[in-house]
């Protein structure tokens, strides 16, 4: 007799023989969803090709994002659903609602838009977003290895344009990183032509609040340590503004050029923002104008960075023009 051992497609754990289809008990409990619980008002979560696994796109601190279908329009969307562990907590649900509201303020070609918020009869909050069919910058770098400077700068330029839109609404993303930037090929026929979309503004916070006298947001740490600004890692002490996102975009540009973040650590305490490892840029043959720009974007002191997203965009475009000049030498 042959014994068939099932393995969870999400975590790789062995699934008990008497467990239901769709994943191990732990993952099913964490998501709080089953194949019989896929409907969220006018949206239904899609299954993958096996017909039993929910089509999960990503996980965050409070929610899981799925590929879903708008049953009224017949179009596909990204549906972010609050996790089961938070769905019964009124404060968490209100925070989830605020995050959706903050993300919905942005309407820009380089930002994945949020267009609907809802709540089921059982208290499961969700919001529908534009579904970006492409790959993350993280996946793009893993597939292509090191990215040419002019293409890496193009990604950063479009990311800066998204930050300009956020800045106009007084928002700070707070978790800008390679997995939150999507690359979409356009239909121009140019293999290097791409569109960048910033996703998951769910962590976004307004920098204009009445909670502090200086009208800035005093927050603890939220985000990914490798790409977070130094001030963001000082939990409970940081006054975050656009310059924090500028740092994160700089770390993402570094990742595009070197295949890794400038500073790495599995936890907040392990990340040390000390001397920039410029030898990584040298090994990747990054041209000096780009090195100079990165040193500015990644300055430990926010005062040393571009003061605004628009100032950053100007610097990025100027840098791109310099290295695109036929007379420029990369050696």
Return the string of H and E elements. Answer: EEHEEEEEHHEEEHHEEEEEHEHHHH
Secondary-structure class = alpha+beta
CATH superfamily of the largest domain: Transferase(Phosphotransferase) domain 1
Task: Determine the N-to-C terminus distance.
Answer: 66 Å
* Average pLDDT, all residues: 81
| Biggest pleated sheet | 7 strands, antiparallel
How many DSSP-defined strands? Answer: 16
Furnish the topology, listing elements before pairings:
Elements: E1 6-7, E2 14-15, H1 25-31, E3 39-40, E4 43-45, E5 56-59, E6 63-70, E7 76-82, H2 84-87, H3 90-104, E8 114-119, E9 125-129, E10 135-136, H4 137-144, H5 149-168, E11 171-172, E12 181-185, E13 194-198, E14 205-206, E15 217-219, H6 230-233, E16 238-240, H7 242-258, H8 278-283, H9 288-297, H10 309-324
Antiparallel strand pairs: 1-2, 3-4, 4-6, 5-6, 6-7, 7-9, 8-9, 10-12, 11-14, 12-13, 15-16
């Amino acid at each position: 007799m042959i014994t068939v051992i099932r393995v969870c497609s999400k975590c790789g754990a062995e699934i008990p023989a008497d467990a239901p289809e769709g994943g191990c008990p732990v993952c099913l409990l964490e998501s709080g969803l089953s194949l019989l619980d896929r409907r969220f008002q006018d949206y239904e979560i899609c299954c993958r090709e096996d017909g039993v696994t929910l089509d999960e796109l990503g996980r965050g601190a409070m929610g899981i994002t799925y590929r879903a279908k708008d049953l009224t329009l017949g179009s596909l969307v990204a549906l972010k659903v609050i996790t089961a562990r938070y769905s019964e907590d009124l404060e968490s649900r209100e925070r989830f609602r605020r995050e959706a509201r903050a993300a919905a303020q942005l309407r820009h070609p380089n930002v994945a838009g949020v267009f609907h918020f809802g709540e089921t009869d059982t208290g499961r909050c969700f919001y529908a977003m534009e579904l970006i069919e492409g790959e993350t910058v993280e996946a793009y770098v893993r597939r292509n290895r090191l990215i040419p400077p002019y293409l890496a700068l193009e990604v950063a330029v479009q990311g800066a344009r998204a930050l300009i839109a956020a800045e106009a609404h007084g928002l700070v993303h707070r978790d800008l990183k390679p997995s939150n930037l999507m690359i979409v090929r356009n239909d121009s026929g140019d293999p290097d032509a791409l569109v960048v979309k910033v996703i998951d503004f769910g962590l976004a916070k307004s920098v204009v609040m009445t909670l502090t006298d200086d009208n800035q947001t005093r927050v603890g740490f939220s985000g990914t340590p490798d790409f977070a600004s130094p001030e963001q890692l000082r939990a409970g002490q940081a006054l975050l503004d656009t310059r924090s996102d500028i740092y994160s975009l700089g770390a993402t540009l570094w990742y595009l050029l070197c295949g890794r973040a400038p500073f790495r650590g599995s936890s907040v305490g392990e990340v040390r923002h000390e001397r920039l490892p410029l030898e990584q840029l040298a090994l990747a043959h990054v041209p000096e104008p780009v090195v100079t720009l990165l040193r500015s974007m990644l300055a430990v002191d926010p005062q040393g960075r571009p003061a605004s997203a628009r100032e950053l965009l100007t610097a990025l475009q100027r840098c791109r023009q310099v290295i695109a000049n036929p007379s420029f030498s990369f050696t």
